[in-house]
Amino acid sequence: MECVVKWVGGMTFMAETGSGHVVTMDGAPEAGGRNLAPRPMEMMLAGAGGCTAFDVVLILKRSRQDVIDCTVSLKAERADTDPKVFTRIAFHYTVTGRNLKPDSVERAIKLSYEKYCSATIMLGKTAEIEHTWEIVEA
């Protein structure tokens, strides 16, 4: 996996991923940014949410569950002093589908955070991780 991050002025940076996609990041105004794009740490949190949502949907589909939507809401706390690592992250999954089995949803989430989601497992080295979930019948 590769990525090139280029400073484009102020406190704005462009990241080009190995798959050829471009993402903009910017700093907070108090740090010289112009608030034009997500902060780098927000991107890390979003990446963890995307990683686990991907896993959960894939596992449920492979389990022949009729999943139609999956939303992961994340709330994180960071250390007060540098390095301001994540110290706590709460993941809340809202999984929507038809006749979803609660055991299957719980299993998919557990497999993601215990085995498959590299981002969450990595962040779990510094942060206390909490997972909650709910099912919405479509």
UniProtKB/TrEMBL annotation:
InterPro entries on file: KH_dom-like_a/b, OsmC/Ohr_fam, OsmC/Ohrsf
Family matches, as SUPFAM superfamilies: OsmC-like
Pfam families, alphabetized: OsmC
Protein name (Swiss-Prot/TrEMBL): Peroxiredoxin
Organism the protein comes from: Zoogloea ramigera
